[in-house]
Fold:
Amino acid sequence: MSQAAEAAPASAGAYAEPATHLRWRHLKDGLARRLVGIGGIAVLGSLLLIFVYLLIEVLPLFASARADLRAEFRVPGEAGATLHLALEEQSEIGLRVSERGEATFFNLTDGTVREQQRLPVGDRRVISITPVASDREELAAALSDGSVLLFKHTYTVTYPGDKRVIDPGIEFPQGEAALPFMTEPPQSLVVRKDGDRTLFAAVDAQHRIHLRTIEVTTNLLGETTTSPGAEQILDPQLNPDRILVNPLLEWLYVIDAGQGRLALYRLRDDQPPELVSSESVGAAVTQARFLSGGISVLTADAGGRITQWFPARRAETTPDGDAIWYLARVREIRAPAGEVTALGAEQRRRGFAVGTSTGRIGLYHATAERQVLDVAAFDGAVERLAFDPRANTLLALGANGTLKSFTLHNEYPEVSWSALWSKVWYESYDEPRYLWQSSAATSDFEPKFSLSPLTLGTIKGAFYAMIFAVPLAVLGAIFTANFMAPAMRQVVKPTVEDMQALPTVVLGFLAGLWLAPFVESNLPGVFLTLILLPVSIPVLGYVWVRMPARIRHFVPSGWEAVLLAPIVLGVVWFCFALAKPVELLVFGGNMQAWMDQTLGIGYDQRNCLVVGIAMGVAVIPGIFSIAEDAIFSVPKHLTLGSLALGATPWQTLVGVVLPTASPGIFSAIMIGLGRAVGETMIVLMATGNTAVMDFSMFSGMRTLSANVAVEMPESEVGSTHFRLLFLAGLVLFVFTFAINTLAEVVRQRLREKYGNL
Amino acid sequence: MEPAPQTSGNAGPANRNLAAQDLRDVRAYVQSGTPYVWLTAAAIATSVIVVVALLLLIAARGMPYFWPADVVVAEYRDPAHEPVRVMAELVDSEAVLTARLKSAGLAVDDKQALYDRLLIKVGNRDQYGADFRHLLSDWLVDRTTPDDVLVLERTEWGNFYGVPVAVKQDGAVVASGEGTYAAWQPLQERANGLRDEIGDIEKGRIGAINYQLEQLRLDERRLALDKRTPASDPAAHAELAQRKMALDAAYAVLQEELGKLYDGIRRDALVVKMVTGEEVEIPLEKIIRGYRPNGMNVLQKTGFYFVKLWEFTTDEPREANTEGGIFPAIFGTVLMVLIMSVIVTPFGVVAAVYLREYARQGTMTRIIRIAVNNLAGVPSIVFGMFGLGFFVYAVGGSIDRLFYPEALPAPTFGTPGILWASLTLALLTLPVVIVATEEGLARIPRSLREASLALGATKAETLWRIVLPMASPAMMTGLILAVARAAGEVAPLMLVGVVKLAPTLPLDANIPFLHLERKFMHLGFHIYDVGFQSPNVEAARPLVYATTLLLVGVIVLLNLAAIRIRNRLRERYKALEH
Structure:
């Protein structure tokens, strides 16, 4: 290329360019045109790609869920009622336990039997089956002679020849002998295991509840001794049809289906259960079960209503200071038409499925308070519903004896308008709250995805930054553009603009480690400065006016700011010198303590005041630069005309310059706001990063951007949390882009206007 | 605007006063608007003061870090406790109100309104539990600065303050009393030499062997993926086995050498008496440097200052980054910025040339310009998210599946690294380069271009030989501004490749020398990490200030350079226009 290009001018001058050379040059020209065109469009396209990519990551959140029918087949195994349905982790194999104790493992794809095993029940019948631990693989079967058989369904996964083979089987952790519990068939058996303790509970024919705790202790030699506790018999006021006990063995729920009542008892080790509260569900209860995590209880009633309950504390306490518990009716969700005949819960999320007598299945999410899906599955009633542990497959048993397995595409049920923006009553909380708490150590955790505190934090930070920055930047720009001597302006403008290059991590570091402790120990000084500095300047200006002319002429017009620099420093120094005596006299020596006791305002060391100042410093240069340009480019003949007519410089400014330049100042403020909203490092370092819902100047916050910076690296790719973070990013992108575009359009129009003037 | 009618309403008397320029009357002073002018002047004065104060603060806090401060020996008489002897550096002092001290449980005298509270560094963290203490200045009495106080910088537990008592060799005392310091110094130099050798072997040679062993493992896995079993391709497997044996043998030799060096370095120890009277034996292996600040004159201290400064910029960090140097962070920052420049310059220039020279000027180019401008205002963290999601997971993941299947499931490019960080920042700074280059292109007088075309040059030739050379200072300005922005940006890097401590540099002696997939350290992130995530923030603070000073210095210099180039450029075209 370079050789040919060098040859070109010489030959061009000679007018005798060979045709091949000319063609070669034109070829190169065309090539360059095409290359630059491709390159240019590619670069601009890649900028567009950012937006498109963010959108692609976010969109699945709002896609609706799907359930694809995978297979439909007759119930495998012997005839008779099905007491339990379960699925294994990989959604390959299902388990069905019949009333005569036959456990059948079958393929979920076609219903063929993989393995069949009979539980050692002899000629007894199985009455009911209940899960023991929260992982749901350990089950307890109530037998017709009153004894209880514990068993486990297990799956061994091997990879012979790189192919996954799952081998199902039944194990008996307590031995194959059934444990004696009652002398009659136990109705609604509950078995719960917590550490060494196992609790058995069931209802007898006289509507009494039998409770027995068995403790297994292991001594130093590794010998285990089993000590069955005494049997407690509870006679509740209502006729219990169903009982439930939470996994930590603290709460006993007693359900009277006919009367539609739900009573909550507190279980204690040695004492009889204590009634906490008894609530009316509103109609006869048809189904009841725990949600995953074992904190919330769902009831379905004849009115087609699903109600979520859990124990909560009242705001007031007993005279001894103990909490008063009650059974909270948390939320109600409408079921699909028909009587609710089956209720299944996901094992790791707060989702559940509802089956009705009309054969419809509804998929719901409790925290998000939303129906995710509604499918018509059977002509008759739905009898049983079961999820696999990953909630990828739903197995439904119809009253007509067919099983249907559905593949679920339901990755983001947690997202709904109310979950993101409204107050939500989360489990273990005493009232609805706005909370952002995306992850925890346990898989049972109910994620809290309220964007409200993050959005409020973002707005709060930007607001305090703008309060600090706008007056300084805009007023400073006014003086620099309108009054300042040109020689001084040449120094001042680049100095302030240069501050824009200061890394925000530096500002954040200084704010967090220097400014925050400084403000904490000099709070009165900060406030004195904020009040006294603006007041003292006009007063000092008046003093200056009263000075003899000889001194006044010492400072030429346009250099007043230099005169003010020592004065500003002096006033600030004076304020901080005064701060300690003021704190001693007015606030009893400790302003934070005074605020806390007298005004009830808490004080965090890393608070909005600090962030406001630090972020203000970060946005001042941007606002200053654009506002100054706008004011400076107001045509001179306008101002000169106004001054010639006798207006003072200030009157000229207010009457002529500012109205002309105001769109430019507006766009400067917009651009500053855009920067403050998206700023990350300062907020990350100068606040405590707690997601709070208040607007106090003395508390911290958590912003959308800082939240992304903290949580993004640990977020699981493709999860709801991951996509919500992208949503936060998209919101930031769109917001700043819109603000900047608005500012840019305003500025361009302003430029045209100046052109006309 | 609102105030306009108000001024016209008062026009009569106000104007008369103003015409005479007599503002002595308060009313006239206020009506003339002069107070507001003073306010605007105060605003710009405050802004400039904030800028200058910020830079001064950073300099004032960062520079003394390398200065050997005097060590004070004194007695602390807290009325509520037994008096204790203290040996410490005075770090900071502030005035605190008595009420606050009282609420902190100190037995202060109510009659005195204010107390001076000192922050002192007592060091000896392994002995005292904490390096720093807050003491009241009034209670710290009998202050002296004895010459024989020795400050030891150690490889762990931070500084040690004490008086040397004896030197031990293999457990036997070889020097004690007056001559201890003199006898210890050559031994310490020997230990430092051995430590360097150990470091050289461990980091350099054993590191290289480990790298090759890892490559061998990957080669083996690749063979397995290609279904070349030992039976079907015995030659390849034999070669691998041979290479492995050679490496193992080399490793064994080095291991033996290392054992000898360790025996040597562990031979000597220094016994130091703390101010409490207790004697502590410190192996020389753990000591990096010892000095007696109280006995140094200004010249010696200045020399020491520059030694420390050199160490700071060229050494590896120690003790969770709170001590030692920041060389890997400087290196990582520079390398990342270099790679970014290589990417951003051609693309930025091509895009600017397209917009200015080739694209038809109209609504479309206007919209594109606004979009490019606005991208500079998009929060940097959004670029980081894009980098993580698109570059790392999507592009990097695909590269891994296509080219590095042998390493899976461990990702090679499918994890944050320096290449992705550079690409992300290139995207972030693209608008800066485009805007600056476009501005430069727009400033080139039309007459020059027309002259070139009139002489028969094609558009490409005009561009290549006339326009681009003339716009090169503008490109340079854009690039420098981009580099300055990239060097200070942290938020996106936290997502795409920065780590607090990278075990290896992205550039080393192992083929292919430049390891684009590696994670790296960065000055800005170092500030964040050491200042906020470190377990001993108080001890790390001076180091963070020094790092900050370095970073700010580099960025201010870059910006000044950009401004100078821009100004010179403007001058040049002014001359051309006439």
Q: What stands out?
A: Chain B has 18 helices and 13 strands.
